[in-house]
Specification:
The protein has a domain at 3-95 and 216-269. Helices cover 77% and strands 0% of the residues. The chain has helices spanning 3-24, 28-58, 68-117, 122-143, 150-158, 166-185, 189-214, 219-239, 245-269, 282-298. The chain is elongated. Belongs to the anion channel-forming bestrophin (TC 1.A.46) family.
Length: 314
């Protein structure tokens, strides 16, 4: 592997590391999660490098020599595939984060519109606000495919809500209530359309999250990259300079481990709704939404959540 190829790999790894740092910021559990996900591969690489590196200088294996251009070409191919894979994975993660940013904004907008257009109805405002908060938590729990929390379950039971898609049903309840208050308060068409448009945007955001959740990376693509990394690891000791055994072993470990770390980072980022420490911080965002809605409804300052919990899952 030439200097330019190694430099390309290092630059790509640094970019990926920056992305990973944003994912795991202020969250020690995510660092532990990442280490646990790669330690088996790293242990295998270290074992292979030590065994082959030793045999390569003391047995007939020293006669095996793979031309450096072959190793360089293989390393370049793997590096390019990993760069492409990492970029795609980060795009998915970032799209999911942007969608939840839209949910935060539209949740605030919905309650602000309800408060302004229905100024004499605290009960109607409270009902919209409570349902919107439950919708946010229900959506996050549905995307993670975990049982509904006690709070969400209690609300669903209290309001007799049973559906395969609970978040969608909650938005339907928003629309039903909007139709009722339109008649009750004589809401003009312009105001009704504005509120309905906000509900429609929330529905669109939910659909985007479901699309990201249900669209998976081709398994064959992941297997191909993983196979190529191990193929490169297998030939690497025979393509490096044999004059310094220790350096050969260290380079084999470092280069192969870097590839594995980049690959695992891409795998982690490609699924932002898997209830892992590197998820989109949906629970924390839901809490932010709840605090904002309470402030809008009560016109009082609500204490902000702790910064550390922003990136914590449950």
């Amino acid at each position: 592997m030439g200097i330019s190829d190694l430099a390309f790999l290092i630059i790509n790894f640094i970019k990926t590391l920056k992305a990973t740092t944003m994912l795991v910021k202020n969250n020690k559990s995510s660092i532990v999660f990442f280490i646990k996900s790669i330690w088996v591969d790293i242990a295998a690489i270290i074992t292979y490098a030590l065994v082959i590196g030793t045999l390569d200088h003391n047995t007939i294996l020293r006669e095996i020599a793979i031309p450096l251009p072959i190793t360089s070409i293989m390393g370049t191919i793997v590096g390019l595939l990993l760069a492409f894979r990492t970029a795609q994975s980060y795009d998915r993660w970032w799209e999911a984060r942007k969608v939840w940013g839209e949910i935060v904004n539209d949740s605030r907008t919905l309650i602000r519109q309800t408060k302004q257009f229905l100024p004499d109805s605290d009960s109607e405002l409270k009902e919209f606000a409570q349902r919107q908060v439950i919708w946010c938590f229900a959506l996050s729990e549905s995307l993670r495919k975990i049982p509904f929390s006690k709070r969400v379950g209690s609300y669903l039971e209290q309001h007799y809500i049973k559906a395969n898609n609970v978040p969608a049903e909650l938005l339907n309840r928003h629309a039903d209530q909007l139709a009722l208050v339109t008649k009750k308060f004589g809401l003009n068409d312009n105001k009704q359309v504005q509120i309905d448009t906000t509900i429609a945007r929330l529905n669109d955001a939910m659909g985007k999250c479901e699309r990201i959740k249900n669209t998976v990376f081709p398994k064959s693509y992941s297997l191909l990259i993983h196979f190529l990394i191990y193929l490169l690891t297998s030939i690497l000791p025979f393509g490096l300079e044999d004059s310094f055994p220790a350096i050969e072993i260290v380079l084999t470990i470092v280069i192969s481990s870097t590839f594995i770390a980049v690959e695992k980072t891409a795998i982690i980022m490609q699924d932002p709704f898997e209830n892992s420490p590197t998820d989109i911080p949906m629970t924390a965002l839901c809490t932010v939404i709840e605090n904002n809605i309470k402030e809008i409804c009560s016109d009082t300052v609500i204490p902000a959540i702790q910064t550390d919990s922003y990136y914590y899952i449950n």
